[in-house]
Amino acid sequence: MALGANLPSSAGPPADALRFALHKIHGLPGVVPHAVSRFWTTPAFPPGSGPEYVNAAAAFFSATPPEALLADLHAIEAELGRSREVARWQARGLDLDLLAHGGRVLPDAAVQDHWRALPPAAQPLSAPDRLILPHPRMQDRGFVLAPLAEVAPGWVHPRLGRSVAQMLAALPPQAMAGMRPASA
Predict the structure, then answer these.
(1) Which of 45, 120, 178, 181 is deepest in the core (most CB within 10 A)?
(2) How far apart, in Å, are the Cα atoms of 102 and each of 1, 28, 120, 121, 157?
(3) Are 144 and 138 in contact, with CB atoms under 8 Å apart?
(4) How confident is the model over 16-38, as pLDDT tens digits?
(5) CA–CA distance, 151 with 148 (Å, rounded to integer)
(6) How many Å apart are CA 98 and CA 138, to the nearest integer?
(7) CA–CA gap between residue 72 and residue 164 (Å, rounded)
């Protein structure tokens, strides 16, 4: 899963929001923590949409169905004031994305492929009405792949057939521009 924040929340500054979320996630029934990446400072995406983010990734084992797990993640976001009624890709106090659930493809290969192939201009304008796994943008984003490579470098995308490490290595240099490990 990916975690990010670039605004203060009731938990404090962005890094504290990530710590709060990790504590809550590790306390969810059936969640067995595996690894957490270091925190990264990354430029806001899209450029100019707010202050820098603090991003991280976490890997854990869970038999909880992915839709229920996503509902739990949304509840944690809401606890820190996140509203999903605003426009996409805005500054926020906490963003939790379920990137994958093992090798599952949801809801099916055709829908996952459709959302993954969505042209860049259309991406901020439409959102799926259901959970899409793997996350359709993960292979394009350094702020997702760099932390994820620290906790699950060998996980293989079931539709692309590439590992996290391979997807990270294939990114153009600008996908990592301005990223650096956070100091705290």
Answers:
(1) 45
(2) 11, 18, 27, 30, 9
(3) yes
(4) 999 999 999 999 999 999 999 99
(5) 5
(6) 10
(7) 25
CB half-sphere exposure, 49, CA atoms < 13 A:
16
Residue showing tokens 């839709």: 67
Residue 7 dihedral angles phi and psi, to the nearest 5°: -130, 150
What rounded mean pLDDT belongs to the chain?
A: 92
The backbone region for 19, taken as left when phi is positive above 0, alpha when psi lies in -120 to 50, beta otherwise, is alpha
- Residue 1 structure tokens: 């899963």
pTM over 0.90: yes
Distance CA(97)–CA(70), nearest Å, equals 8
Tell me, letter by letter, the H, E, C secondary structure of 29-89: CCEEEEEECCCEEECCCCCCCCCCEEEEEEEEEECCCHHHHHHHHHHHHHHCCCCCCCCCC
The set of residues, in sequence order, having a beta carbon less than 8 Å from that of 78 and lying 6+ positions away, is none
**CB environment 86-105: b (16+ within 10 A), e (fewer):** eeeeeebbbbbebbbbeeeb
Per cent of the chain over pLDDT 90 is: 80
